Amino acid sequence: MSAVTAGGAAAPRLGFLRRLASQEGLLAVAIIAIAVVVGFINPRFLAYRNLADVLLGNAYIAIAAIGMSMVIISGNIDISVGSLIGVLATISGSMAVAGAPVVVAWVVPLLLGIGVMAAQGAVVAYLRIPAIVVTLGMMSILKGGLISVTGGKWITDLPQSFHLADLNVLGVPMPVLIMVVATVLAALWMRYSPSGRAIYATGGNAEAARLCGVNPQRTVVMVFAIHGFFAGIAALVYATQLRIIQSTTPPGLELTVITAAVVGGVSILGGVGTVVGATLAAILIAEITSALVFINVSPYWTDALRGALILATVIADIMRRERRAARGRRK
Amino acid sequence: MSVIAATPARKAPWWITRHETLLALILVLALFALGAFNGRFLTVDNLLNQGRLMTEIGLIALPMTFIIITGGIDLSVGAIVGLCAIMLGYSWKTFGFPLPLAIVFALFVGGLAGFANGFIITRVKVPPLIMTVATLALYRGLAEGVSQAHSVRGYPEWFYVLGQGEIFGVPTQLLILLVLTVVAGVALDRTTFGRTLYAIGSNETAARFSALNVNRAKLIIYTLSGLASGLAAVVLVSRVTTTRMDMGMGYELDVIAAVVLGGTSIFGGSGTIWGTAIGLAMIQLLKNGLALTGVKGDATIVVIGVALILSVLVASSLQRRKE
Predict the structure, then answer these.
(1) Contact criterion met (CB below 8 Å) for B134 and B200
(2) How many Cβ contacts (< 8 angstroms) between chains A and B?
């Protein structure tokens, strides 16, 4: 069922190459290759300061991509995540400025994220409304609501203790630590726990999953709730890493998150993919965005490149599946 | 009467229970309610102006109805509007195309963008949702890359006839929309092409086994969607007299809301152009009504989002009760 096991079993002779050719392997190679090539053209790209900025500034995208991967693996999609992160970041910042205890300002967005996403998941699962409609509607509600409430004002004068992203543990900055821990935990959970496997089963074939004793509806609600939790964490990292919070939704954030999940190898037909790939893809996209600046390409081309990347991945994914299906038929 | 006897489940004439009739009724009620509430609303001037404002969304909503009837979706329409607007301004200003040629070029780019969607959806079998999310990013990115955030202004005077002029007192673009609506409505209702779309939406496999050319029909509707977005871009540029890379952003929400509100099932298989026309009018009414009561533009998209979710909820619960 999953790409990794199918690839490994098919041709043991090519085991190492196969593993390298897995989506995660390709992404890791691409990340290193781009670093080498761009570093060769402009050594300043490899300055520690720049690489750290790339990683720190985009960790929240990788965190959000973890939840998005789960949603896509379960056979759904969410385009409200960018707006939700904007809303949660604003709420968190406003609470901190209003004098709420810092812990409360950190925890409330998490709970709200879980609540909003679980509600959407319930509508998708139990009322059988396609996720695209629910989340498209929710996106406009959140986006429009945020601007009309705040008027797009910036939140400033955040208390010093609010800045979660400034902390570090044994020299590792908090955003990177959260990104790595979240990725590893989510990957292990999805691979080894029954509820994690249930996500793959639901996305692969909901009817078959039901016959195997998985409750697809409950699984979808759970997936959306977890996605909301990660969106909450992403919002926290996003809100606490700068001195100000722009109380608008980061433009195009949902597309970046979806791109990271899809480029990371999450099959858009559901049922296949890993969160490790999503995190690597988020890093790759951030790296490419930064690299463009260092090789003097206008940043206005970034979005086109991102679009081409997601398109190429999707087409490659489908064609790979077709080929595998054809090979299966021959046997 | 004999009809009623033959099918006892049906209690009223068929046209009363139709979604479109109910919508039209609500629309008329809302018109008068808003008119009573605000003296400036129910004037010919205001209504014609609203017609002008809703044309761009309306042009795209026609092929979007086709697409949703087949069970597909096209999220890239807003990005195609942006790309075509940029292509219009860019080819005119930078390539030095004469403006009529630039308009044709913009339409061509729109058609090509839609064709690319349709081609990969039918040949590679990428689900429409994912394909058009990807091209939403790609086309908007191309608009940004090509324009480098420069806007183009200073079009010749005759060009503004399209977006600001009127014929017999009716806004030019509204007439275009009316003609195309009738064409689309007849095509959907009275041609084999139109019936093919319903067949695809109800059961694609059955449609294929009935020797219907499913792929060709899909290719046509996605290309039409791109073309209509290109036309909307030309009208929009003519109306606002400038070309910017963020044009058409968020159009997909309005378009899909209009189509779904008009009674087209998001699951495919049912829907009409007439319903879409009413849905479109209702969306515009909502926007105008809210604006007249002093609600800002950002809050209107909240209402449209709510309307989108509610109309799908109501439609699907009615559907389930019927089953």
Answers:
(1) no
(2) 133
Across chain A, what does the average pLDDT equal?
84
How many Å lie between the alpha carbon of B170 and the closest alpha carbon of chain A?
Answer: 32
Judged by CB atoms closer than 8 Å, whether chains meet at B300 and A144 is answered as: yes
B271: left (phi over 0), alpha (psi -120 to 50) or beta: left
Give the Cα separation of B5 and A301 in Å (integer): 66
- pLDDT above 90 as % of chain B: 48
CA atoms within 13 A on the CB side of B118: 26
**Crossing angle between the packed helical segments A216-240 and A48-73, to the nearest 10 degrees:** 160
Whether residue A255 lies within 8 A of chain B, CB to CB, comes out as yes
Return d(Cα A271, Cα A251) in angstroms, integer. 29
Mutate to test the interface with B, among A68, A134, A139, A311 (most CBs of B within 10 A): A311
Asked if the Cβ–Cβ distance from A301 to B141 is below 8 Å, we say yes
Q: ipTM exceeding 0.90?
A: no
Which residues in chain A have Cβ-Cβ distances shorter than 8 Å to B67?
Answer: none
Q: Which residues on neighbouring strands pair with residue B170, listed in sequence order?
A: B167
Cα distances from A23 to residues A26, A69, A118, A240, B253, in angstroms, run 5, 14, 30, 32, 33
Q: What is the pLDDT of residues B70-127, one digit of tens each?
A: 999 999 999 999 999 999 999 998 888 899 999 999 999 999 999 999 999 999 888 8
Residue B293 has a pLDDT of 74
SS3 state at B265: coil
Give exposure, B192-224, as e/b (b: 16+ Cβ within 10 Å). ebbebbbbbbbebeebeeeebebbebbbbbbbb
pLDDT digits (tens, 9 = 90+) for B128-172: 988 998 999 999 999 999 998 888 888 888 899 888 888 888 899
- E-only strand ranges, chain B: 166-167, 170-171
On whether the CB atoms of residues B83 and B139 are closer than 8 A, the answer is yes
| pLDDT for position B7 | 46
Classify residue A149 by burial, with Cβ atoms within 10 Å: 0-12, 13-18, 19+. Answer: middle
Tokens 């219907």 belong to which residue? Answer: B212
pTM for the full model?
A: 0.86
- Disruptive mutation site among A124, A267, A289, A300 for chain B (greatest number of B CBs within 10 Å): A300
Alpha helices, DSSP H only, in chain A?
A: 3-10, 15-20, 23-41, 48-73, 81-97, 102-126, 131-150, 174-192, 194-204, 206-211, 216-240, 253-263, 275-294, 302-330
Do residues A314 and B126 lie in contact, with contact meaning Cβ atoms separated by under 8 Å?
yes
Nearest to A121 by CA among A258, A189, A217, A212: A217
How is chain B split among helix, strand and coil, in percent rounded to 5?
75, 0, 25
- Beta-carbon contacts of A172 under 8 Å, excluding residues fewer than 6 positions away, are none
A169 close contact with B: CB closer than 8 A: no
Whether B302 sits inside 8 A of A311 (CB atoms) is no
Q: Which residues contact B182 (CB under 8 A, 6 or more apart)?
A: none
List beta partners, residue A169: A172
Any chain B CB within 8 A of the CB of A329?
A: no
Q: Residue B166: beta bridge partners?
A: B171
Q: Does B145 sit within 8 Å of A307, measured CB to CB?
A: no
Beta-carbon contacts of residue B298 (< 8 Å; ≥ 6 apart): A143, A144, A147, A148
Type of residue numbered A229: F
